[in-house]
Write a structure and sequence with these properties.
Distance between the termini: 62 Å
Order of helices and strands: HEEHHHEHHEHE
Number of helices: 7
Strand content: 15-25%
Helix content: 40-55%
Shape: elongated
Strand order of the largest sheet: 3-4-5
């Protein structure tokens, strides 16, 4: 395959027009030249991907860098809806979760914890009554360490 054929395969070209140009110099003849128009590939964004593909991407991101996964929730409402279940699938209980202050943000967080958490890691020095309340309300709990 010739070099020009490889270039044409990689960069599709449409010859929009052939315009005669005057030669410079002593000649008065016309020279035909082609004006090439390069078509760029269509632009796409992450919003074009299906939610199933985004779930796979964000699960990989969770394994690589959990903080980046938390940051991805802030990008859009769609990403927040996809990332929240992934982020809360495994939860390490601590004092802030077991004995939170009673405000709107903590109750919204706990509702999501109850809905999405499947695996819980806990320490023995946590308040046993508060831990039991949290664990009893988890709908999808499958393992406790």
């Amino acid at each position: 395959m010739a070099r020009t054929e490889v270039i044409y395969m990689a960069y599709p070209v449409t010859f929009a027009s052939i315009k005669p140009k005057r030669r410079r110099g002593n000649g008065t003849g016309l020279m035909a030249t082609a004006k090439a128009v390069y078509h760029s590939s269509p632009r796409w964004s992450l919003n074009d991907l299906s939610p199933e593909v985004l779930v796979l991407i964000f699960k990989q991101l969770r394994d690589i860098d959990a903080q980046s996964l938390a940051d991805a929730r802030r990008i859009s409402k769609i990403f927040d809806a996809i990332v929240t279940p992934i982020q809360l699938e495994t939860l390490c209980l601590n004092d802030r979760i077991v004995a939170p202050p009673l405000d709107t943000h903590s109750s919204q967080f706990l509702e999501k914890v109850y809905l999405y958490t499947r695996h819980v890691e806990t320490r023995s020095n946590l308040d046993p009554e508060g831990t039991r309340k949290i664990l009893d309300k988890m709908q999808r709990l499958s393992s406790l360490r």
